[in-house]
Batch of 3 targets.
Target 1
Amino acid sequence: MSDFMQAGQITEAKQALDALRANMRVTIRGKDDVIEQVLVCLVAGGHLLIEDLPGVGKTTLAYSLARSMDCAFSRIQFTSDLLPSDVTGVAIYDDTVKEFIFKKGPVFANVVLADEINRATPKTQSALLEVMDRARVTVDGEAHAVGTPFMVFATQNPVDYEGTFPLPESQMDRFLMRLQMGYPRAADELEILRTQRGGYDAIALNPVVTRGDVLKLQALAHQVFVEESVLEFVLKIVAATRIESEFRAGASVRGGLALRTAAQARALVYGRDFVLPEDVTELVAPILSHRLALARQTSDALEERRAVGAALRRIVAALPIPA
C-alpha cells in the first residue's frame, strides 16, 4: 500500500467503480471494454471523444454514465448555425434590477454531450476550449465556474464529412481519450432488439455514486504511485512518436502527461495504488492516436486511424517493458 493512501481507500474506490460499471452494463450491452475506458477517462478527470458511426449507442453511453453518477446531464446538438452563446450562455439585461444577468448555457452540467461536434463552425467549437481546460466560462470579462465533476463527451462521424468542420489539433489535444464503440456482437444486439424501448431519455437508471464520490475518486487517482521506470517508459513512447517517419509531428508534452494520468486512473479502476507497465501500454492508442497525424496525405479517416494505430503498436513493441 502506498504511503499516500489510507487503509480502505482503494477498496472503497474499487467498490464504487465496480458499481458504476455494473449499472452502465444494464443499458450498454457487450461493451465492457468501452465502459472500462470511459471510467478511466472519468477518474482521470478528462474529456472523451467517441468517433463512430451513428446509432451504435454513443448518446446512450453518455446518458448512462451521467445517470449512474447522480449528475446533471446536458446534450448539445452541434449544427452549422449554432452560436458560441448557445453553448456557453449569454448576459441579458434585466430591467427589474437594472443590470445584466448571466443566463447559463447547456455547458453548465456535469456531463455534457457535444453531439456531432464537427458540424459546428470553428468559432462555436472554440467556445468549448476554455471550459474543457479550466471548467469555467468567461462572458463579458466575468468568469463563471461550471462546477465539478465536469466532463465533455463529444461525438463525431468518421465517415461522413459533408458539411463538417474538422476539429483543429489544439482542440483535439484537449480530449484525454478517443474511443470507438463498434457494433455489438450478434447475441448482444439480439438482446437489445428484445428489450430496448424508446430513446436514451427513456432509460431508467438509479444513481450508484454521488458527485462527491466522483470527486474523491479523481483526487485519489492523482495519488496512485508511478515508479520511475514506468515514467521513463511513458517518456520513451512519447519521444518515439517524435521521430516516427509515419507522423507529421509527435505527441506533445500534454500527451505524455495525459498518458501518465490515465495510467494512474486505470490502476485505480483495477483496485491498485500503483501503476503497472500494462496500464500504459493498454492506453497508448486511446490517449495518443488522436494527437497524431500521418505525414502522408489521406482523405480516408478510417485508413488514417488504422495507420496511426499500427505505428503506435510498432513503437510499443520495439521498447523494452519495465520489470
Target 2
Amino acid sequence: MATPIRMTQLSSGGGCASKLPAAALAEVLQGVPHRDDPNVLVSGATFDDAAVIRLDDGSTLIQTIDAFGPVVDDPFDYGRIAAANAISDVYAMGGIPRFALAIMAIPAGVEAAVTTEILRGGAATAHAAGVSIVGGHTVTAPEPLYGLAVTGIAPGGSFWVNSGGRPGDLLCLSKPLGSGIVANAMRKDAAPAEVLAAGVEVMAMTNAAAADTLRAVGPTAVVDVTGFGLVGHLHNLVRESGCAAELELGALPLIPGVRELVEADVIPGGSRRNRAAAAAYMSARDGAVDALITLACDAQTSGGLRAAVPADTDPSVLPGPVIGRLVAGATGTVALI
C-alpha cells in the first residue's frame, strides 16, 4: 500500500532499538531468580537464540520472542522483516517454526491502514514459512513496535545449540552483512535506491533454506546474527564452546554498496557500541581494513545463520561462504585476519 508516512520517523531512536549489551544483560540477569527445571533443556543462561522445553509426552518445543521498532519506511516491509527476524531464532536452534503470537505497539493517531499493512507483512512472511499467527496483543504506545512470539518443534527431539563448536570447525554465514548500515542510511536519505532495495530483501528473507541445508550437513554450533553483530554473536559461541575463532575479513559477504556507506561514516550507534564492546575480546591483524571491521560488528536485523561445521565439510554444500574457523586459543576471543 502506498502511504505518505515514514515509519522510521515515528521512532525517536531512529528505528530499531539497540539490544542491551551482552555484559549489561548478564549483570541485570544476575538479580533475577532462576528456577531449576529438568524439562528446560536450553534457557537464556547460555545466550542461545531460543529456549528448548521437553514436554511430558517426550516431545520438544522451541520458544522465542523478538520485536523491534521500524527499520524501514514501508509498513508492509517492516512487518515482513520483523516476522522473519523472530522466526529465525527457531531456525537457528535447528527447529521447525509452527505457531506465533503477534506483539504490537502503535502510536495513537496512526492510520488503521498502516497498522493493517504491518500485520499483513508479518502474516505474509509467517505463512510462507508454515507459521500460523494464532493471536497476539496490541497496545497504544508513543513509538511503534512489532514482532512475534514463536513456537516451533525440534524434529525427533534434536536441536542445535551455540556451545558445541570444536577447534578446526569451519564457519559459514548464510546472509550478507550490512543491514544495520542500510537501515541507518535509509533514515538519513544517504543511500541509492538499489542499495536500500537489496537491504530490504536480505532482511525480509527467512533462514528456512539455510536451516534445511545445515540440517543435512550436521553443524556443531549455530547462531543467527542479529543485534550483537557477527563478532558479538561469535564471541558468545566460542565462549560457550571453550575455544577461539578466526574470521577472514576478505571472505565476509556484504550487501552491495554497504562498504561505501561505512566509508562515508553512515554508521548507526548500535554498530559503534558493538565495536567498542568487542575491543575486550577482538583483535585485528595489522593493515586490516577498518570498514570491514565495522561491518563485522554491524548490528544486524534479521541476519543470517552463522554455523560451525566439521572441518572436512565440503564448502560447496554450505548455505553460504566459509568466513573463518574455530581454533584453540583464549576462550571467547575472535581474531580478524
Target 3
Amino acid sequence: MKAAFLTTQGPPEVIQYGDVPDPQVGEDQVLIRTHAMSVNPIDTYVRSGVIAAELPTPYFPGCDAAGIVEAVGSSVKRFQVGERVWTTNQGLVGRQGTFAEKIAVDEKWVFGLPDSVSFEDAAACALVGITAHLGLFREAQLQPGESILVIGGSGGVGSMVVQMAAATGARVIATAGSDEKAEKVRAFGAEEVILYKSQSIAEQVRQFSERGVNVVWETRREPDFATAVEVMAERGRMVLMAGRDAQPPFPVGPFYVKECSLHGFVMFKATPFEMRSAADELSRMMASGKVKANIGASFPLSEAAQAHTLQESATLDQSDRLCGKIIVTSNPSS
C-alpha cells in the first residue's frame, strides 16, 4: 500500500511517500481502508520532535481518519466488513498514525459513520470535535442560556466549540482575525464576533454581556489570563487546551474572589468510554447538520509534507493562509 511516512523526526521534508507493507490486524483491531485524513497541530509537534515520543518505524503521522472497514480481528464485536467508520487519537503514545491507505486501529478508538456524513467531513471534525465536546460538556459543563467567549472561533477547535455551544442553546461571542473569518464564525452560530486586531476583547464582551461570560475557551499558545478573568462572570469557567510551554502571569486575587475555575485538559488522555460518548454525540450532530466541517485546504496523500508545512505556518507563524482544517485524501490502491 501507499503511505506518507517518516523514519526520523524533523521538518516537514522528512515526510516521504511510497510503498510500505500492509498492516497486520490484531484480534482487537479494525482494518480501515482510508478515504480521508486530517492534519492537526499536534501531528506537526510529534513529527518535528517538539513532543518526545517513541515512534514505530516507519511512522505514519496523523491522528484522524475516515473510511471503510476492510477486515476485523477475532475479538471485534462492534464492526463488520463494509461499514463506514472514523477514528481519532492515533499516532500518539506509541500508536501508529493514519496517513496510509490502510490502518489497523484498536476497536475502542473506532466509531460508526452515518451515511449522510462524508469521509472528508468526518476526518475534519474528528479530533477537534472530540476536543470541543470534552471541554464544553465534561469540563465546563456548559448549559443552555449561558454565554461563552471563544478565542479563535474560525480555527479547527474554535469552530467546533462555536457550533456545539450554539447548538446547545448558549449565547456565543468569538474572536476572529479578519472580516472574512468573522463571516465564517457568524455562520457557525456566533451572535457577535470581535475583530481582535482592531477591537478590545474586554470592551466588546462588556457590550455583549454586562455581567461577563460564563465560559471562556482559550485556543492560543499564550493564554491571556488577565483579560479572561476580567470578562468572566461570577463562577465563570475557563477552558485551556493549548500552550504547552506557556507560563504567563495569573491574576490570583480577582480569579478566586469571583469563584472562577480553570480547566486544563488533553484530548488524547480521555478514557475510551469518554471518547466514545463524545464521538457518538459528534456523529449525531454531524448527521443532523448541527455541526459542519470547517475545511480550509485539501491535499492528496502524496503531498502530506506540503500539508504539514501549511499547518505549521498557521500554528507557529500565525499566518492568515489557513482558515479551518487541512484534509488529506487517499486513493486506496486495489
